[in-house]
Amino acid sequence: MNLSVLSCRYYINLQKIYQAKAEADFLAIEQRVRNILKRIGREPYSIPKTTIKSFCRNARKLIVCRYRPIEEELNSPVLSELQKYLTDKDYRFPGLHVGEMDEDISRLKTIAVGLLGDLGCNGSALTEDLINEMCRFGVAELHAVAAFIGGVASQEVIKLITKQFVPMYGTFIFNGIDHKSQLLAL
């Protein structure tokens, strides 16, 4: 017998095994769905077989997303530090006044290192170049960076509204100087 014919037979047999397992899994899930619907007082056949079959076909793509509660976000030490900084009567954007650049660099570095320390991160990893660039741009907003961040934010909103795809989990950081982004779980 030809080797390719044997290979085809093995493949067809393997395919039949997978189809039988998929059918058995579908029947088990269908029975579970019917029992749950009956237990909660709904018509057991209110969810059609086609919907259950589609669910079974796509179940491998499911993921459980667990996020921090909003209370935890609002009680974050970072938020209180930022509020303290933003409610300072002498607050101004770093780099707003050219003559005060050195003071702004020093102040921003102190605040950034403090925030990173509160989060348990190494503040010494923060380079002078990044702080200098943030102060150098002052209140300027680069349109390309704003468009990129707006696109990322709108993509995440669409994911949440449509309940499709997996939203980002963590803090998204974009470095417009080096054109790099990173997602951190803090």
Polypeptide structure, described:
With 186 residues, the protein is mainly alpha-helical. It has 2 domains: 3-61, no CATH class; 75-184, no CATH class. It is 59% helix and 5% strand. It has helices spanning 3-39, 49-58, 70-74, 77-86, 101-118, 128-137, 143-162; strands spanning 171-175, 180-184. A two-stranded antiparallel sheet has the order 1-2. A hairpin with a 4-residue loop joins strand 1 and strand 2. Helix 1 crosses helix 2 (49-58) and helix 5 packs across helix 6 (128-137). The longest helix has 37 residues, at 3-39. The model has no long low-confidence stretch (mean pLDDT 82).
List keywords for this structure.
7 helices, elongated, mainly alpha, 2 domains, 59% helix
Topology:
Layout: H1 3-39, H2 49-58, H3 70-74, H4 77-86, H5 101-118, H6 128-137, H7 143-162, E1 171-175, E2 180-184
Antiparallel strand pairs: 1-2
Helix pairs in contact: 1-2, 5-6
As residue ranges, the low-confidence spans are none
Find the structural class using helix and strand composition.
mainly alpha
Count of alpha/pi helices: 7
**Spatial strand sequence of the major β-sheet:** 1-2
| Order of secondary-structure elements | HHHHHHHEE
Whole-Å distance between the termini?
62 Å
Shape call: elongated
Largest β sheet strand count, sense and barrel closure: 2 strands, antiparallel
Strand content: 5-15%
What is the tally of beta strands?
2
Q: Roughly what is the average pLDDT, rounded to an integer? A: 82
Query: Could you say how many structural domains there are in total?
Result: 2
Global Rg:
27 Å
State the helical fraction: 55-70%
GO molecular function: ubiquitin-like modifier activating enzyme activity
